[in-house]
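Postdoc handover notes: sequence design on the structure in folder B. Input tokens:
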């Protein structure tokens, strides 16, 4: 997971306190979201009608965002978030209104101030996007899989929706939406909404999302895209040249939805589809409602990386249904989702399989804690992102420490009780937001009941408001990895790779085998592994990425052409960052990093560019 090293910031003194042990919980007040400048929490904003034109040649979106509001508190103005938008005009209830765009603040962009009357009902903003829209990646045909048509996709989480729609851009504000999207002839448009399944002649697509969603779940993809059903309520979208492979890889997605429902209650969003995007997509997956956005690097050919889909699907409960109130509470989205993802995978693939996912996650957590610093408040589950980019919170703390807290609670109270609790949690908070403090109060009221023995065993404050990995952190059974350890030891003691027992290994066993190798292998060792297992040319992105890092360390040049090929197309930040970071570690490899980055920077997403610019271009 990608993140920058951060400075220590003391917790805000007026931060709400966690529920006291044994106390009768009083629901703590909602927290202020410091990453939106909108006042839409005081003006009920209920619906968005979006009417936009997507100009792929000019790389610009333009159109109207029409907001339905209820000025129940009789405020004098509506404030919306914008980032690098040009505002052409604003109408309030059909009449032209003066508006001002405040100077841009770091990370947050410019607040759009619109004066409104006490009974204002509709605010229309005519706007266009700018060249620095952080949510948008415009691809030329050669940057797509099929290399025939241009492509656009958005990535709105955490606070980038404001760079393509003037909106109240905080996770605590939900609204329904309808959209009319005009695109170039022959291309298909898809949103986080009810979607078409084929291209139409008019080039105009209509969308409806009647379930209220926060702005970070607004999404749009436009390109030469085809659809294939999996079953009656799930299916896949991808470029034509990839669609059959994608359909095959995601064969089990229908089963995943049923499994998730058996665990935590009905799927409430209608259809569940997945779109596999061109390789530049900067992240692994994004839980856009009804339509998960996904990197093509999960298409390994053997369905071995599909836990990513289980993860994005699980967000249909944790995140999209019950939403973190602010980005400081991000672990409530991601930690719950990782826990849920592993429960789905356990159900589908068996416990020895999900145990491997847990252990690899634990290793990621250890790495994250080492890199951030074991005493840093950035290793608490509850974050303090005041004045910072919410992207700073995108670390394995939220994901892995968060999920391990839930695992700790499960082991303490028993699975049956914990599952009942989670079912209630999703029901009671459906379509609402929740803060960490509200969660702790709910946990006390519905599960722990002030029981001091349970509190002692779980030590919840150490997890939520304490650094590093708590002493009671659970570990998974190591049944399958113990066997891998034995093979690795044999190899390091001189056994030829051909003599090792690796039959039946999944991606996860290979990752564990390679991760725990000594920091640097000799050229001969790298060569021997490569000859036997064809690691340089593996089609598996997770294994390839790790192998290339090892190759840079070992100076194993035979892998470099394949690594360059990988870096020239793949835009997933999680893969790019370790490779460039490894090259930047030694003066001898820095010119290679700069040279490759200069060549391929243009293929990467604006957010990946921001991360890598800081790393590669520093002197
Ligand atoms: N919601 C996240 C992606 C995200 C988080 C984007 C915060 C921007 C800001 C998504 O569900 C996610 O976690 N994706 C992971 C994959 C997952 C299997 C851990 C990723 O993209 O690597
Ligand atoms: Zn997630």
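Designed sequence:
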């Amino acid at each position: 997971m990608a993140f920058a090293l951060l400075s220590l910031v003391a917790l805000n003194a007026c931060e709400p306190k966690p529920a006291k042990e044994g106390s009768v919980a009083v629901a703590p007040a909602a927290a202020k979201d410091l990453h939106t400048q909108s006042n839409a929490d005081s003006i009920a904003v209920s619906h968005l009608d979006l009417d936009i034109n997507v100009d792929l040649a000019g790389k610009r979106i333009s159109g109207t965002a029409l907001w339905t509001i209820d000025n129940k508190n009789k405020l004098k103005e509506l404030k919306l978030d914008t980032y690098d938008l040009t505002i052409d005009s604003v109408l309030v209830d059909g009449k032209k209104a003066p508006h001002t765009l405040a100077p841009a603040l770091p990370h947050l962009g410019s607040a759009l101030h619109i004066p409104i009357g006490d009974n204002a009902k509709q605010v229309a903003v005519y706007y266009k996007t700018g060249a620095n829209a952080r949510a948008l990646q415009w691809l030329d045909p050669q940057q797509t899989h099929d290399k025939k048509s241009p492509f656009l996709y958005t990535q709105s989480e955490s606070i980038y929706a404001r760079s393509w729609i003037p909106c109240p851009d905080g996770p605590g504000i939900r609204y329904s939406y309808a959209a009319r999207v005009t695109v170039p002839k022959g291309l298909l448009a898809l949103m986080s909404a009810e979607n078409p399944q084929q291209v139409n002649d008019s080039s105009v697509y209509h969308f409806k999302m009647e379930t209220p969603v926060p702005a970070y779940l607004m999404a749009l993809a436009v390109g030469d895209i085809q659809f294939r059903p999996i079953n009656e309520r799930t299916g896949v979208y991808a470029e034509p040249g990839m669609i059959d492979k994608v359909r095959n890889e995601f064969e089990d997605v229908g089963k995943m939805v049923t499994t998730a429902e058996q665990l935590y209650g009905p799927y409430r969003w209608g259809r569940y589809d997945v779109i596999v995007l061109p390789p530049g997509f900067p992240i692994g997956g994004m839980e856009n409602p009804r339509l998960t956005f996904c990197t093509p690097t999960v298409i390994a050919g053997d369905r071995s990386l599909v836990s990513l889909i289980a993860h994005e699907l699980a967000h249909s409960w944790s995140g999209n249904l019950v939403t973190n109130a602010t980005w400081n509470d991000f672990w409530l989205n991601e930690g719950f989702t990782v826990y849920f993802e592993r429960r789905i995978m356990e159900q589908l693939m068996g416990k020895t399989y999900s145990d491997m996912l847990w252990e690899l996650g634990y290793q990621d957590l250890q790495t994250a804690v080492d890199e951030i610093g074991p005493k840093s408040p950035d290793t608490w589950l509850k974050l303090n992102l005041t004045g910072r980019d919410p992207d700073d919170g995108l670390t394995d703390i939220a994901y892995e420490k968060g999920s391990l807290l839930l695992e700790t609670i499960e082991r303490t109270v028993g699975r049956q009780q914990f599952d009942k609790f989670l079912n209630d949690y999703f029901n009671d908070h459906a379509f609402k937001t929740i803060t960490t403090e509200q969660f702790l109060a709910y946990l006390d009221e519905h599960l722990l009941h002030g029981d001091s023995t349970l509190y002692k065993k779980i030590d919840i404050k150490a997890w939520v408001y304490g650094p590093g990995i708590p002493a009671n952190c659970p570990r998974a059974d190591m049944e399958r990895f113990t066997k891998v350890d034995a093979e690795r030891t044999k190899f390091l003691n001189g056994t030829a790779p051909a003599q090792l027992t690796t039959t039946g290994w999944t991606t996860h066993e290979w990752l564990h085998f390679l991760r725990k190798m000594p920091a640097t292998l000799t050229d001969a060792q790298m060569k021997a592994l490569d000859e036997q297992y064809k690691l340089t040319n593996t089609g598996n992105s997770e294994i390839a990425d790790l192998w290339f890092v090892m190759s840079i360390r070992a100076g194993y040049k035979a892998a470099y052409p394949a690594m360059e090929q990988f870096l020239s197309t793949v835009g997933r930040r999680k893969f790019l960052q370790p490779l460039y970071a490894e090259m930047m570690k030694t003066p001898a490899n820095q010119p290679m990093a700069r040279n490759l980055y200069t060549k391929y920077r243009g293929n990467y997403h604006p957010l990946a560019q921001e991360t890598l610019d800081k790393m590669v271009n520093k002197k």
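Context for whoever picks this up: The radius of gyration is 24 Å. Don't rerun without checking with the PI first.
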